[in-house]
Amino acid sequence: LNGAYINNKGVEFGLGADIIEGKSFSWSINANVTLVKNKFVYPPAGNSPLQFTGALNGQGTSGAYSQSISHNQPIAVFYVPTFSGFDKDGIGVYGPSSEYVADPNPSTFIGFSTDLTYKKLTLNIGTHGSFGNRIYNNTAMSVLNISNIIGGRNIASGIVKTTENTANAITPSTRFLESGNFFKVGNLSLRYNVGNVGKAIKGLSIYTSVNNLLVITKYKGFDPEVNVDKALNGIPSIGIDYIGYPTQRTLLFGLNFSL
């Protein structure tokens, strides 16, 4: 669109320090924080959505979407009706029309790593996280909804004790928007430098490493660090989880040496 642009504003902070440097023990840290906000700007559009994206899957949701590209709104802003709960019959109550309800883009990114060395032993810990965004849990909406129990299929444990009627229609809404905040211990490694062994093996070190060790989040899906593209008419989406494969946890053991 002629005259359209994306406005990004933010700031980034970084810190690195060697806290302790000794003959037997050393400790260093590195940390960074990024604060950012974006919005799509195209004044001729006014308050009307220009394009829709964020296609949704599930029985009864043919042609449904959850996001829009709109003037003065974050990129791929969530655009759905508001969910207000269930009526006396267990049927969902929704707002009369779609609204701009949430930002799928994190506003804060953090990273932190530290290295500790004691004699021949070295420990490295790497962490990261993001905050301020929402995720649309399309998996919960379409795969784990309460009507599936009629066919003997699994449903989400969180809806077992609700008053929802099994006849309640699947409806895109704020009901399936969840906090995308998370903090991860992405990597932890421990290395022991043995040194030379005899005349044949030089610089031997033994190590173990764990990736995706710990995730702290309130998101109910498999992984808040989700990246499932639910593009509509060629327009990419952000922050929609539809049976996204979770980040695997790996444990490695190894040896390093030269001859």
Describe the structure.
With 259 residues, this protein is mostly beta strands. Helix content is 2%, strand content 51%. The protein contains one helix and 16 strands. It has a seven-stranded antiparallel beta sheet, with no helix packed on it. The protein has a four-stranded antiparallel beta sheet with strand order 3-4-5-8, with no helix packed on it. Strands 12-11-15 form a three-stranded mixed beta sheet. β1 and β2 form a beta hairpin. The longest helix is centred in the middle third of the chain and has 5 residues. The radius of gyration is 24 Å and the shape is elongated. The mean pLDDT is 93.
User: Over all CA atoms, what is the radius of gyration?
Assistant: 24 Å
Overall helicity: under 10%
Low-confidence stretches: none
Rounded to the nearest angstrom, the distance between the terminal CA atoms is: 62 Å
Helix-strand pattern, N to C?
EEEEEEEEEEEHEEEEE
**Spatial order of the strands forming the largest sheet:** 1-2-9-10-13-14-16
Tell me the β content: over 45%
Report on the biggest sheet. 7 strands, antiparallel
Structural class: mainly beta
Count of DSSP helices?
A: 1
Count the strands? Answer: 16
Summarize model confidence as the mean pLDDT.
93
Shape label = elongated
